[in-house]
Amino acid sequence: MIAVVALATVSVAGTTNSMLSLADMAPPGFDAASFARLGLGVRALGMAGAYVAIAEGPVAGYWNPAGLSTLTDFQLEGMYTNWLGADIHYQYISVAGYPPLGEKRPLIQLGQSPVTFGLTWISVNVAGIPWWEDEGSYGTFDALSHLVILSMALPLAQTPSFTIGGNIKLYHDRILEGQSLGWGCDVGFLWRTQVAKIPLRLGLSTTDLGDTAVRWNGTTGEAVNYVPWLMRAGGAVELWEERLLLAVSYEWGLDRPRFERFRIGGEVRLGWLCLRVGWDQQLAGDHGRWSGGMGIIPWVGMTLDYAFLPAPLGDTHLIAITVAF
Description:
Elements: H1 2-13, H2 42-46, H3 60-63, E1 74-83, E2 88-97, E3 108-110, E4 113-132, E5 138-155, E6 162-175, E7 178-195, E8 198-207, E9 212-217, E10 224-227, E11 230-239, E12 244-253, E13 256-270, E14 273-282, E15 287-299, E16 302-309, E17 316-324
Antiparallel strand pairs: 1-2, 1-17, 2-4, 3-4, 4-5, 5-6, 6-7, 7-8, 7-9, 8-11, 9-10, 11-12, 12-13, 13-14, 14-15, 15-16, 16-17
């Protein structure tokens, strides 16, 4: 139960980060929405989150919205898991691309560039958290957090290999009588090229520009918390006739040195089977962890992905289904 209480504070109140020790705790109000930094996409997490330069599929909007411009169909991805096995219910649904309406897919253009849209919903729910007061009264409460991301991406008309994208994000939490609301935005860039006939991708994204303010109502003091302003930069290369994908990324927080982390991941594609592994190294405090996963394509238009994330507080197993229309 102690773990559940601590992680409820992590995921919903946003004052600590579930990947950090108590010694790394941020000052109150300066680490809001830490649940949103758990990561998104089972394929991406199987590669330890080294995904800013890959940015494929509907979850690309989370890592780098510029990656959505590569979609030519309509894709839906969903996942549910019990995070750390601690009754932290974590789930998401992400859709992006061009839905099949009639014989033609609707195409929206900005100038001469096609625009791709995506929508993602992330939810974390922790039930039965105990509380007590000095007078001796006690009970339980639920904590619920949501993040909705509206994404857009388009290639540059003069340089189609260079794409840009952006997100508008809505944060919402509910704890007892308190509710919070915050609006944020992200910007991403992606460049695809070849060096010596080897496919190369370079990605850069910045999230929660200016430290997104999350304002609480119905709580003592009507507090305002802030989501850290983060930067992600990375690269990816395809080898062995594009059957081997290797990616690295570096992430840091503006004025938040403890958010620095290095991620490296790889994926081997063997027809209908993909094998993945990655390492996520947090530079502040020397926190690191490995991850692994796999994906199978049972038939055309469907992918099943699995990721394993070990952690001192408990292991997490992720399973997602992606369907293309």
